[in-house]
From TrEMBL:
Pfam family, one: ABC2_membrane_3
Family: Belongs to the ABC-2 integral membrane protein family.
Locations listed in the record: Cell membrane
Protein name, UniProt field: Putative ABC transporter permease protein
Source species, domain of life: Bacteria
Membrane topology label: Multi-pass membrane protein
Key word Transmembrane helix present: yes
Swiss-Prot/TrEMBL keywords: Cell membrane, Membrane, Transmembrane, Transmembrane helix, Transport
Record-annotated membrane-spanning stretches: 21-39, 232-252, 278-303, 315-339, 346-366, 402-423
GO molecular function: ABC-type transporter activity
Cellular-component GO terms for this entry: plasma membrane
Principal cellular location given in the protein's record: membrane
Keyword flag Membrane: yes
Length: 429
């Protein structure tokens, strides 16, 4: 016990000697968490609340173009621009503005495209009327392919293009369906002798709808991942693991200054020294972790982001935070034991944390990684740490839910500590 206490106070002394470093240990991860939440807010919202400016050239002047424009403007996501510098748009102007990066999207509705939709609707209505014995025939002619032209700025990301194309395609399909249903309704009016003149096709085709339900059975707010719910815990874990930098640096400094030798002279095994270091840095890391969670709860709402919701199991969250802090500290002790100089330990420690965070789902969700990397992610303790936090925050989990995660993190910690202790005992001999 004396060796544990001596080691604990020695770590306190090293930190007190470097107050600036201790402040940076808290403030830098806090700043990183806030910045990443702000930067990644738009991708997590999937462009739902962003309003896009679209260059709009209507060469058709027909019903389809008119209905399509009204539908796009009603969504609130698009602002259609039909003139530049006080002059009406033409094809050359649209292409030049998009290619030059002045605007991101351009849409050209060609001539006679409404007539093609009306012609297709007449063909469907005539076929249906013929099969039902309806008198009369709507005018029709052979179908000609028509295309609404869409242009994107060459630097537009593929994810953004896909989202916009899906939204535009959905709106175009809706407009065409409404026009065809209108023609079918007119044809049905010819069947008044059968008593179906009031037949409402649109109403009948909306009998089945989509509605989202929560998969969980527990009561409480149903959450989904957003920039805050992902980035705050993710970068809090990332910042906590960066505690290996002061840990490894202090261990090397102790060996160089001789303070480690004086602590070794206190009766007891080297495991007591590791226990003392572990106690100090686990308390420090847990405090750092909770500080960043509080920032997500209190600071980010003032920056226009949603507040962090920390689940309904505070005791389980504390146990999880302690387990993550123990794993991060154990890894720092391993790095400090393996390397002899700061020039060896610090670059390796920092870069290895970046690699573990990249494959562990801190930067991007593991689900979008290639299959091989999805399996490799499980070799990163950050993967298990983040998944445990998601269980508690988003899936309304409890201590039982994260028990497997805690067990795996404990295995990581035990392996790191065992190797670090073996190396130091070997070095002593």
């Amino acid at each position: 016990m004396k060796k544990i206490i001596a080691t604990f106070w020695n770590e306190c002394r090293l930190f007190i000697r470097d107050i600036t470093g201790m402040v940076l240990l808290f403030l830098m991860p806090l700043g990183l968490t806030i910045i990443m939440a702000l930067i990644q807010d738009a991708p997590f919202r999937e462009y739902q609340h962003i309003r896009f400016e679209i260059l709009w050239l209507d060469a058709d002047k027909g019903q389809l173009a008119e209905n399509l424009r009204e539908g796009l403007e009603e969504t609130g996501q698009f602002r259609l621009i039909d003139s530049l510098d006080g002059r009406p748009l033409d094809t050359v102007a649209v292409k030049a503005a998009i290619q030059g990066g002045r605007y991101k999207i351009g849409i050209i509705v060609p001539r006679s495209i409404s007539a093609e939709v009306v012609n297709s609707a007449n063909q469907v209505a005539n076929e249906l009327g013929k099969s039902l014995g309806a008198a009369g025939k709507l005018p029709e002619r052979p179908t000609r392919q028509a295309t609404v032209e869409i242009y994107f700025d060459p630097v537009t990301k593929q994810a953004m293009k896909s989202a916009l194309l899906n939204a535009l395609d959905k709106q175009l399909t809706k407009v065409q369906a409404e026009m065809i249903l209108g023609r079918l309704s007119r044809k049905m009016e010819d069947l008044d002798s059968t008593g179906v003149s009031q037949f409402n096709l649109e109403e009948k085709l909306q009998a089945v709808r989509l509605r989202e339900f929560a998969a969980g059975s527990r009561k409480g707010p149903q959450l989904s991942s957003n920039s805050v719910q992902h980035n705050v815990p993710a970068w809090a874990i990332f910042g906590l693991f960066f505690i290996i930098v002061p840990i490894s640096g202090n261990m090397i400094r102790e060996r160089e200054e001789g303070s480690l030798m004086r602590i070794r002279m206190v009766p007891g095994s080297y495991l007591s020294i590791l226990a003392g270091k572990l106690l100090f840095y686990v308390l420090l890391g847990t405090a750092q972790f909770y500080m960043m969670l509080v920032a997500g709860l209190l600071i980010l709402p003032h920056l226009g982001l949603p507040a962090l919701v920390m689940g309904q199991a505070p005791a389980a969250l504390l146990v999880t935070a302690l387990a993550i802090a123990i794993t991060a500290t154990a890894y720092g002790l391993l790095v400090g034991a393996v390397f002899q100089t700061p020039n060896q330990a610090l670059p390796f420690g920092a870069i290895s944390i970046v690699i573990l965070s990249a494959i562990g789902g801190i930067w991007v969700p593991v689900e979008i990684l290639p299959p091989g990397l999805q399996q490799l992610a499980k070799a990163s303790p950050m993967y298990w740490a983040l998944d445990a936090i998601n269980d508690l925050f988003l899936r309304h989990g409890n201590l039982k839910t994260v028990a497997t995660h805690m067990g795996i993190l404990s295995i990581f910690s035990a392996c790191f500590l065992f190797i670090a202790g073996w190396i130091e005992n070997y070095r002593k001999k």
